[in-house]
Design a protein that fits this description.
This protein is of the alpha/beta class and about 290 residues long. It folds into two domains: about 160 residues, P-loop containing nucleotide triphosphate hydrolases (Rossmann fold), CATH 3.40.50.300; about 80 residues, Conserved Hypothetical Protein Ylqf, Chain: A, domain 2 (Orthogonal Bundle). Helix content is about 40%, strand content about 15%. It has twelve helices and eight strands. Strands 3-2-1-4-6-5 form a six-stranded mixed sheet, with helices on both faces. α8 crosses α10, α8 crosses α11 and α10 packs across α11. The protein is elongated. The relative contact order is 0.15. Bound molecules: guanosine-5',3'-tetraphosphate.
């Protein structure tokens, strides 16, 4: 990926340090951490420090937005996370698909030992407390709202918990700790930032919109060529540049400006919108094999 044309992304280290402190201070109040990632970008959408911050807690990785991701790739990622010591499940918080597995997996796999210990010591009824974390836009609120449904209610303040956090009681046995604050994704890795811009997780303005769409079109032509041929009915050859692909899409959609020129800006907006809403099919932007290489 050519990074010279990217604007440097601004970090806000102060906010990040505050969130990090908040997570560290609250970890002792929970039994496990539920980390939500985007199934289309399972590594790029993780906070780089999450592993070290939560290393002493059992953890479940939730690959959300699996309705938009490539099914086979999602399964590869589930295997990848399991091989690396974290239980993982795929869900779609828009429809609720897969969410019914979350608590059973937490109880029977992620917290198996704790559950057995509680059973032995007669504390079977004690509530399981889970911290929900994830970078902005991965679907934390959607997940909490879906799981809590109409019953969403605040649990009373607890000693040692400042008011900025919110406990959400799901039932008599489960409470979620909805963490405020922002965890940044992997901004320091520019290709990760580009993937996050493709999905709309971070602002488009790290690149101008046409450059972003051109990069996406090149990725799609190399990895999911049918997404282009089926949706836009365009042919392409291996040496088509992003600009040529963008012009083909614009031409096919009749996006012209006076003088017969193609309106590549409109074409770029269309490509990005259609990708983000799933109209180009089920697409995953990174694979575990690439990480291993
Ligand atoms: P956050 O709290 O982590 O910041 O994320 P939030 O739940 O606000 O979700 C961010 C966007 O992602 C929302 O779209 C939400 O609807 C969408 N989303 C969440 N989970 C899923 C999923 O499993 N599949 C799909 N396709 N989308 C999901 P939005 O456009 O910002 O809002 P809205 O149009 O839903 O109002």
């Amino acid at each position: 990926m050519d990074n010279n044309d990217m604007k440097q992304i601004q970090w806000f280290p102060g906010h990040m340090a505050k969130t990090r402190r908040l997570i560290a201070a609250n970890l002792k109040l929970v039994d496990a951490v539920v980390e939500i990632v985007d199934a289309r970008t399972p590594l790029s959408s993780r906070n780089p420090e999450m592993d070290s911050m939560t290393r002493n807690k059992p953890r479940l990785i939730v690959l959300n937005k699996c309705d938009l991701a490539d099914k086979k790739a999602t399964q590869k990622w589930i295997n990848y996370f399991r091989n690396n010591g974290s239980e993982a499940i795929a869900v779609d918080c828009k429809s609720g698909k897969g969410l019914k597995n979350l608590l059973p997996v937490v109880r029977t796999k992620v917290l198996k030992e704790l559950m057995e210990k509680r059973e032995r010591s007669g504390m079977k009824g004690a509530a399981v407390r889970l911290m929900i974390v994830g970078i902005p836009n991965v679907g934390k609120s959607s997940l909490i709202n879906r799981m809590a449904g109409g019953k969403r209610a605040k649990v009373e303040d607890r000693p040692g918990v400042t008011r900025t956090k919110q406990w959400v009681k799901l039932d008599n046995n489960t409470e979620l700790l909805d963490m405020p604050g922002v965890l940044w994704p992997k901004f320091e890795d520019q290709s990760a930032a580009v993937r996050l811009a493709f999905t709309g997780a971070i602002s488009d303005d790290i690149l101008d919109i046409e450059t972003l769409a051109m990069k996406l079109l090149v990725f799609l032509s190399e990895n999911y060529p049918s997404s282009l041929t089926e949706r836009y009915k365009i042919g392409y050859s291996d040496d088509d540049t992003g600009l040529i692909l963008l012009e083909k899409v614009g031409k096919k959609r009749g996006m012209m400006i006076s003088g017969g020129e193609i309106n590549t800006e409109r074409a770029a907006i269309t490509v990005l919108d259609e990708f983000r809403s799933g109209k180009l099919g089920h697409i995953t932007l990174e694979l575990p094999e690439e990480k291993e290489q």
